[in-house]
Design a protein that fits this description.
Strand content: 5-15%
C-alpha cells in the first residue's frame, strides 16, 4: 500500500508542476519544462519568481 501511495504522490507533484507557468524573456513556459538555458535568458524578476516556485516545489518533497 505504501508503494502505491508514493506513486500517487509523485503523480500529484507532476500535475502541480505542469500547471505552473513562469516567464522566460517575456514568454510563458511550463515550470516543468524550464532548462538551464531558459534560466540564463530570464531577467531578474522572472528568475526571482522561478526560484520562489522552485523552493516551494522542493519543500513539498
Amino acid at each position: 500500500f505504501k508503494v502505491f501511495q508514493k506513486q500517487e504522490e509523485s503523480k500529484n507533484e507532476v500535475k502541480e508542476e505542469s500547471s505552473i507557468f513562469v516567464n522566460v524573456n517575456g514568454v510563458s513556459k511550463s515550470f516543468s519544462q524550464i532548462t538551464e538555458e531558459d534560466k540564463e535568458k530570464m531577467n531578474e524578476d522572472e528568475y526571482e519568481k522561478y526560484f520562489e516556485i522552485f523552493l516551494k516545489q522542493n519543500e513539498a518533497s
